[in-house]
Amino acid sequence: MAAALVVLFGAFATCAEPAADLTLTGVMTRADHQTYREIPFRVPAGTTRLTVRFAYTGKAQKSVIDLGVRDPRRFRGWSGGNKQSFTISEADATPSYLPGPLPVGVWKLVLGVPNLRAGAQARYTAQIHFDRGPAFAGRQLGQSSSSAIAGGCIQLAMRVGRSIPAAWSPKPRLNQSIG
Asked: Would you call 50 helix, strand, or coil by DSSP?
């Protein structure tokens, strides 16, 4: 059993992140302190899931860049500085973001800068992934649990002394509408 877990976790540890479809980069300076900057990007037709992974430098100098997004029609979410990534699809979304249709067109990554000290710079990178094709709650229609795992990385968290049940498979997460 222990050898199987080593093999299982070793496989996930070497699993590579798929290349981003689009990468946005830039630099924030003291001039951006206590302002918002909207960085435009285009969402192509057929996109069923949008994932943004965000990172920035300057944290040692107490720089802070908050994160949000708007689509061509409305504001879709704001996580401030508490998330380094978010996902939006028609069926589900990362908490703080709104699920729903992904309209084609120009979206804007909203960057808020509540703190950036004099003389400091914060370089940012936003990697944007566009999933295409019919999807439901994070899984392509017709895709099995094993192919969903094989197609990308998953993260497992285990308490010491607990094991994964033999019949374990990831389940899609269903969101309920709040009306």
From this structure: strand
Distance CA 55, CA 29 (A): 16
Helix (H) or strand (E) segment spanning residue 122 = strand 122-132
Q: Is 34 exposed, middle or buried (0-12, 13-18, 19+ CB in 10 A)?
A: exposed
Query: Quick one: which of 111, 130, 154 has its CA closest to 19?
Result: 130
Single out the residue of 79, 60, 57, 58 nearest to residue 68, CA to CA: 79
Domain containing 58 equals: 16-150
**Model confidence pLDDT, tens digit, residues 23-68:** 999 999 999 999 999 999 999 999 999 999 999 999 999 999 999 9
How many domains is the chain built from? 1
Q: What is the pTM of this model?
A: 0.68
| Token pair belonging to 163 | 């094991």
Widest pairwise Cα distance in the chain: 56
CA dist 90 and 79 (Å) reads 19
CB 92 within 8 A of CB 25: no
Q: Let me know if residue 156 belongs to a domain.
A: no
- Confirm if 25 and 125 have CB atoms less than 8 A apart: yes
Higher pLDDT, 147 or 41: 41
